[in-house]
Every structure is written in C-alpha cells, then in structure tokens.
Amino acid sequence: MSFKTRCTFAIISHPDAGKTTMTEKLLWFGGVVREAGMVKSKSGDYAKSDWMELEKQRGISITSSVMSFEYNDRALHLLDTPGHKDFSEDTYRTLTAVESVLMMIDSAKGVEAQTIKLMEVCRMRDTPIVTFMNKYDREAMDPFALLDNIESILKIQCIPMTWPVGNGVDFKGVYDFKTKQILSFKDSKDPFSPSLIDASNLESDSLCETIGAPQLEKLKEDLEMVATLIPEFSMEEYQAGIQTPVFFGSALKNFGVKECLDLITQIAPTPRSRQAVLPPFDSSAPKVVIEPTDPEFTGFIFKIQANMDPKHRDRISFMRVCSGMFSRNDKIYHVRTGKEIRIATPLIFQARDRDIAEEAFAGDIIGLYDTGKYQIGDTFSMGKKLIRYTGIPSFAPELFMRVTAKDPMKAKHLEKGLSQLSEEGATQLFIRRHTNEKMLGAVGALQFEVVKFRLEDEYGVDAMYESVTCAGVRWLKFDDKKKEDQFCQEYSSVIMEDKEKRLCYAVRTEWDLRLAQEKNPDVQFFKNSDYIE
Ligand code: G4P
Fold first, then answer.
1. How many Å lie between the centroid of ligand 1 and the Cα of residue 328?
2. What does the pLDDT read at residue 34?
3. Cβ–ligand 1 contact at 114 (below 6 Å)
4. Is residue 16 lining ligand 1, measured as CB closer than 6 Å?
5. What distance in Å separates the CA atoms of residue 196 and residue 217, rounded to the nearest whole number?
6. Worst-scoring range by mean pLDDT, 4-8, 46-50, 96-100, 342-346?
7. Which comes out higher in pLDDT, residue 134 or 354?
8. Homologous superfamily, domain 3-267
9. pTM score, two decimals?
10. How far, in Å, CA of 380 to CA of 21, rounded?
11. Any atom of ligand 1 within 6 Å of the Cβ of 81
12. Whole-angstrom distance, CA of residue 243 vs CA of residue 134
C-alpha cells in the first residue's frame, strides 16, 4: 500500500455527543473490534492495561491514541481526541497531525462549547470536515434548525447527504439524496446491508403506507426546501473546509454510520503537502513546502505519551510521517539535536494493541520509544535534510496555577521537572517576568494533577499549587524593540515568558485584554504560538 491509501483523521465533538460510540462502530467496520465496549470504558477497565498509575486510578485515558484499520481499500488512522476531563492541549495538537475530521453533533443540543474550540484549530489549516448528526433515535432538533445552528456558529456550509424522516420514537430512517431511497431505521438489522425503501416517487401509495402520511408530507416539504436553499456538494469546497457533507443517524444503533464512513473513504484527502522552514529556523527562516511524494523521509512529533509502562520510565513519542518512506532499522536524523538515531522498534497501533511497524509511508503514525530525548514539534528526516515542520504550535491555556516546591531545597528538581514536562507537552510553563514566579498553564484541569503526580513520582518533588486569576495568554509580536520595551514596562505585572522565552501577555479578564489591544493597535496578540513561523 502506498501513501495514496492513507486517511489520517480525528473525531471532534463535545463530551457525550457520541465520539466513543462512533469510534467503536468505525473500528467494527474496520474489523478491529468484534463488539462494542472494547475501545474504552468509562467504568474503568484500564486496570488491565499497563498505563501509568494515575490513569489506572481514574479509569480514563489521559492522552490520545491512534487506532488504525482498513476499510474500502484505505488505510485509516483515527487519532483520538480526548474530550472529557482529559481534555488537554494534546486534543488540539492531534488536529495538527490529521488531514480531515469527522464532527459529531448531539442532535438534541446542536453545537456545544468544546466543538467550537476544536473547530478553531481545524480552521488553522482549513481541515476538511464531514459531519454526523448523532442520536436521531432520540428526540432531536429539526434538521433545518440543526444545519442553521452549525452554519451560524461554526461558519461552515452544511450540505446534507441524507435527510432524517422523523426522530425519536417516530424515527423512520434517512432519505439518501443520491439513491433516492430511505434507509429504514426499524428494519435495518445488518449495517452492511440496510433495509431500503424506494422513495424515487414521493407520491407513491406504498411509500405513504410505509412511512405514514404526516411523515411523508413533512419529507416532501423538507426536500423541496433543501432543493431551493442548499447548493450542490462541491469537492473543492469540502477540501477547502468551506462546505461539510452532513449525515443523520445513530451511532449507538449503528445506523447511518456506514454511509458516513463510505463517504469518508471516498473523499477524505490523502496526505497533503506541509509547510516547513529551513535554517536558521527563526522568524526570518525561508519557508518550504514538503510534498508527501518527496522521496526523502520526513516526519514530526505531535504527541508524547509518558510512562505507558511504569516499570521502564520510557515514553512513546508519536510521529506523523509526512513524506517518503521509513523502514524498520532505518537511521533517521533528529534535526534539533543533529543526531542520527536507528529506529529498531517503531510501533503501529490497532485499537489498544501495538505492534512493530516494518515500514511506514506519508500519513502513517508511528510510535518511537523515547527516554526523554524528543520534544513536541521535533522534526526527523532521512539524509540529514535540514527542515523544521511548522504548524505545531502551543495553544493558549485557559487555566493557570502558581507552582512551588513544598521543600525549598527541591527548587532545582522542580525547575528540571517542570521544564522537561513542558517540553513533553504535559502542561505549559510560563515565567512571570517581574517576579520570576513559575506558572503552569493548562487547557484541561486534569493536566495539573498529572504534572503534580509526575513531579513527585519522577522528580521527587512535592509541589504546591496556588490558583491564579488568569483567563488566558496571548503571544505578543512587536514591530520594533522600542515599542516592546515600552509595552513591557507599562504592562509589567502581566508580562510572562513561555518555555522558549517568547513574550506573552497574561489575560486577567477579557476586558483588560480588549483595552490593551485598543490602546496598542501596533502590537499583535496571538492565541497560539504559530505566528513566529
Ligand atoms: P463521548 O465519547 O462523545 O463522550 O460520548 P459516548 O460515545 O460515550 O456517548 C455518550 C452517551 O451517549 C452514552 O450513554 C452513549 O451510549 C450515548 N449515545 C451515543 N450515541 C448515541 C446514539 O446514537 N443514540 C443514543 N440514544 N445514545 C447515544 P451513557 O448512558 O452516558 O453511557 P453508557 O453507559 O451507555 O456508556
């Protein structure tokens, strides 16, 4: 198989919209799991796995993982985006490693907060999105209201591929615009061959009898409205993230899922070209575009998962392959350190199992055993190619804690621990300029617990947290040094540096931020650190 079969994607949703249920169904179609409930269980069957202690105690997965399967002649890599308590920067960063996204919406609720945040990240690279309106077997919003809800909040044009006939107890199924058939909800027992009702003639008596007169009337009205109001699906607009094809169904009942997966395998992009920079790797660095067809292997680390095996203090770094081909035992070049590393045991992932990868192509995700050498965003290449991939930024945290060591003698250990853990992306470390205080920033609250646990477990530091009134950060960019000095003096109490010593503004309130922006129109405020690239 070549890179042309690869489909590297993620599911975005708000907690409880049905992401886990959908994942299970997709893996089921891919033949990876035989029954539901095998992917993860909120009740916590992680006791069986050897992941880190905290994960076991909580029965949750802290960091996202990769699930690979084959379907319709495509090699799919589904990257998990943790969404409950384990929502973290990893969730955002995973989206920088995918080519497309499946968006799950709870049809009774419409767009919810976490989906909006994740959509912002998708917008950074205009990631193509397929949408699944879930839980139609329960009472749901009217389909037009739902489409309108998505279009107005997420600013993406919805193109229905199917249309629901009723919902909840009256859910009859979905009308397929292409085949002009209704997939019967009640009678479809086998998702591979659903029971179909001919709906090519909407005036037919037998159709009226099958779905009921009021339902048919509503369907006729709806389809007329769709024909007048909604444009045709355009592949170009989907690929540009302007349009999203929409399916209605029920992940729980495995209804409408196959049709959605079929379309994904037909239209989801194969690995695309990616932006990189050449030395000197700073803001003046020349930009290059790397094509997946480039013969030389390149890839970057987008996620680091710590202590999958507590007996060996190792971590697994997840690398997205961007070009060329990689074979087991190849020596690859770690651009940041200038070292060549032989990779003898690259890992591939299937649901919760892992295996040794013999080879990998653009679009594939491989796991590298890591003793602490790699960092998020590190680029690897073959033939000492000197490039650095861009577009793997730090994302503005929304929660902050001041952190100190209970025992002042452990200050050095704390510093080392915090700096290493922030390189790994567990949380972000900021230093307040005028006080030198260390602040940890996180996207999800659980990240603080993880860091506290690991500081104690791995660095022997009992850390104390103190909450800080801070609603976010903005990375700052100035046109000249004089303006920078002036600004930093005026706002000294809220100026921080991130781990790479980039200047940041600590947002106390949105109001303060707006005021600072209005007073300083020539200063740029960024919600992620990507501006530098
Ligand atoms: P998440 O990963 O996005 O958080 O959602 P998850 O799949 O865990 O689903 C959240 C709840 O919604 C689960 O119920 C799940 O069974 C239910 N659900 C998912 N898809 C559908 C659907 O299409 N129809 C209906 N009716 N329910 C759906 P739960 O009771 O919270 O959990 P569980 O005890 O069933 O695991």
1. 39
2. 63
3. no
4. yes
5. 19
6. 46-50
7. 134
8. P-loop containing nucleotide triphosphate hydrolases (3.40.50.300)
9. 0.90
10. 35
11. no
12. 19
